[in-house]
Specification:
The complex is a heterodimer of chains A (about 375) and B (about 250). With about 375 residues, chain A is α/β, with parallel strands linked by helices. Chain A is built from 14 helices and four strands. In chain A, helix 8 packs parallel to helix 11 and helix 9 runs antiparallel to helix 14. Classes of the chains: A alpha/beta (about 375), B alpha/beta (about 250).
């Protein structure tokens, strides 16, 4: 019957077949997952009308695996048919699946309180996370104090490595982003200012805006995405591979060796990056001022010193350090919360970046309120 | 009819990793129903050879045949069908850490397609029973399992599609002698039950003598000797003598 060689595929597999002779069912070929697959629909439809009270002849079946046995066993209504002829060695396949043939699906109980429990769980988890964060910051402070007693143990190498990875290698991209943002902002301002004949005020606007706000926030968002995620992933993988435990076993504090260097490096690198980016943004702005408003670059630089009080620069640099610290602490916090599986690693890296950027923006708003009287010209 | 009886055939395989040749003219045949052990010193290229058979790496020269056909012959569907005829137990289990034990074992079945969810459930539970795990373990995540259980679940997953060939990389590495012995027993009984062909890489002489029906010794970038354990013991080569003597002595001390 259905032994067409085209579907047998390879070497020695025989297409399964099923035939019905009045009260007798005859099965042929290999009843394995692989060989059943091409004609599974047809086999299923044949088996639907199967009758366990009939006689079943499996003497021509070549190979029978668990899946083939399961199909038949289910078709027979989970019992042996009235008359069964088996080829040698087929019985074991039935023995293997008999116990599990009708495993009931796991019962999912409807729990009306589940949403409440989930909410409570979320709140508690949030509480624990804050607790963990505060404890971590405390530990870092304690470790820093310990280092003051024993400065030779300062992990300078790690600090230097992080300075390079988070600071130096970020210079090109930071400069490019800063330059482009400065360009675009100045371009938009130039149009508006020309309408009022207030061309020269572009220096005031760009100067205060970039040095005080845009520089620090832009760099922070960039670094949170670039280095914050790297910190979380690094510490997270170290947790997965038990490297953190190995450090603890050797008596090396993770706060001292992993978190403190990142914190210190970010506090040092961020103000420098802010300065660098602000300069690039001002350059972009000055270029547009020259092209659109005929304001000479030299005049731009000279006016900048006159109209932007130097406090704005200090505010920008302090903000850089503060945001750097926030990014380092947040990303290390989420790194340490990674559970040993891939899902948790990706979830925590995502959270780390989102929370770091949100924290930076929140801190920026608080800082703006706190320093509202400082560095404003003409007061 | 050699095509039906030679499950794996490697001929004239040369492999280069970096600047070094790992294999120089490796020839190996695995016959149907065999339990072939691949032994050799660290870095002898045993795992690399296994990866050639799986198709993860490609030798620089030479050919790899599975089930009588070249490994990369045919179109995508044919290659996929060939891949579903063997199972692999990776050294560290390589369970999907984001999925439960149940979903790990069900994964190849779901990928295969055409099966109903209740059939998948029966097959998964029977696989778990086969590797002597309890139904309650099905809900656990891989991170919650002990080393021995990880190996069992990985074995259940490798067996999910009832492969004709099972490749095992260091099946007993990282297990204590007791667990190791019971895992070896399990593999033996599965071999007897399912009539599989198995190729496994090992360092452990105890695993080797308890499991292998044939042994292939790798050294000097090639297969030094392949045969039954007695034949290999009698083979006169410094590496073979040293390997088995040192190992045997080491085990006596234990």
């Amino acid at each position: 019957m259905q032994t067409d060689p085209a579907t047998t595929g390879s070497t020695h597999r025989k297409t399964p077949g099923i035939e019905r002779h009045a009260d007798r069912w005859v099965l042929r070929g290999d009843w394995t997952l692989q060989s059943l697959c091409p004609r599974l629909k047809w086999i299923r439809s044949q088996l639907r009308s199967a009758n366990p009270d009939a006689a079943w002849d499996l003497s021509d079946v070549g190979r029978l695996d668990s899946f083939g046995a399961l199909l038949l066993w289910k078709a027979w209504g989970l019992r042996e048919p009235a008359e069964l002829v088996l080829a040698a060695g087929l019985q074991t396949a039935f023995d293997r699946i008999r116990a599990e043939a009708d495993v009931p699906p796991p019962v999912r109980q409807l729990d009306l309180l589940a949403p409440v429990a989930r909410l409570g769980d979320k709140i508690l988890r949030g509480g624990y996370a804050i607790q963990h964060f505060v404890a971590m910051v405390g530990q870092v402070v304690i470790e820093a104090a310990r280092l003051l007693q024993n400065p030779a143990r300062t992990p300078l190498r790690e600090v230097s490595a992080t300075l390079y990875k988070a600071g130096i290698t970020a210079l090109p991209i930071a400069a490019m982003l800063g330059f482009l943002i400065g360009l675009v902002l100045a371009y938009l301002m130039a149009f508006q200012l020309r309408n009022f004949g207030a061309d020269v005020f572009i220096v005031n606007l760009l100067g205060i805006g970039i040095i005080r706000e845009i520089g620090p926030v832009l760099v922070s968002v960039l670094v949170a995405g670039r280095s914050g995620s790297a910190f979380t992933a690094q510490i997270g993988v170290m947790r997965v591979t038990e490297e953190i435990d190995a450090l603890s076993a050797m008596g090396v504090s993770r706060h001292q060796r992993l978190i403190l260097p990142k914190l210190v490096a970010m506090v040092i690198a961020m103000p420098l990056l802010v300065l660098w980016t602000s300069v690039a943004a001002l350059l972009g702005g000055a270029l547009v001022a020259q092209l659109q408003l005929d304001i000479d670059m030299g005049f731009f630089a000279e006016t900048l010193q006159r109209v932007v009080p130097v406090e704005n620069l200090y505010i920008g640099l302090v903000k850089g350090s503060l945001f750097g610290a926030a990014i380092a602490l947040v990303s290390c916090h989420y790194g340490l919360r990674v559970q040993p599986n891939t899902e948790s690693l990706s979830a925590n890296t995502t959270k780390s970046v989102v929370v770091a950027i949100s924290a930076v923006i929140l801190l920026n708003a608080l800082f703006a309120v706190a320093t509202r009287g400082m560095g404003m010209p003409g007061r | 009819m050699s095509a039906a009886t030679d499950i794996v055939e490697l001929s004239g395989v040369w492999t280069r990793l970096g600047h070094d040749w790992v294999h120089r003219d490796v020839n190996l045949t695995v016959r149907q129903g065999e339990l072939l052990a691949l032994v050799g010193g660290s870095g002898a290229g045993k795992t690399t050879l296994l990866r050639h058979i799986i198709g993860l790496t490609r030798p620089a020269r030479g050919s790899v045949s599975l089930f009588g056909e070249p490994l990369r012959a045919g179109n995508r569907a044919a290659r996929q069908a060939r891949r579903q005829r063997f199972g692999v137990l990776f050294q560290h289990g390589a369970l999907f850490s984001a999925l439960t034990v149940y979903d790990n074992v069900a994964f190849p079945l779901r990928e295969f397609g055409g099966l109903h969810e209740d059939e998948i459930r029966s097959l998964v539970m029977s696989r778990l029973a086969q590797v002597e795990l309890e139904p309650r373990h099905a809900r656990l995540m891989p991170a919650q399992l002990s080393g021995g259980m990880v190996k069992r679940v990985a074995l259940a997953r490798a067996l999910a599609l009832e492969p004709e060939l099972l490749l095992l990389d260091e099946p007993t590495a990282g297990l204590d002698p007791d667990r190791s012995a019971s895992f070896v027993k399990l593999i033996r009984s599965l071999h007897a039950q399912l009539g599989l062909t198995m190729v496994f890489v090992t360092h452990d002489l105890e695993t080797l003598s308890a499991l292998a029906s044939r042994v292939a010794v790798m050294a000097e970038h090639r297969i030094l000797v392949a045969g039954t354990l007695e034949e290999v013991y009698r083979f006169d080569h410094p590496f073979v003598k040293n390997f088995f003597r040192v190992r045997a002595a080491g085990e006596r001390e234990v």
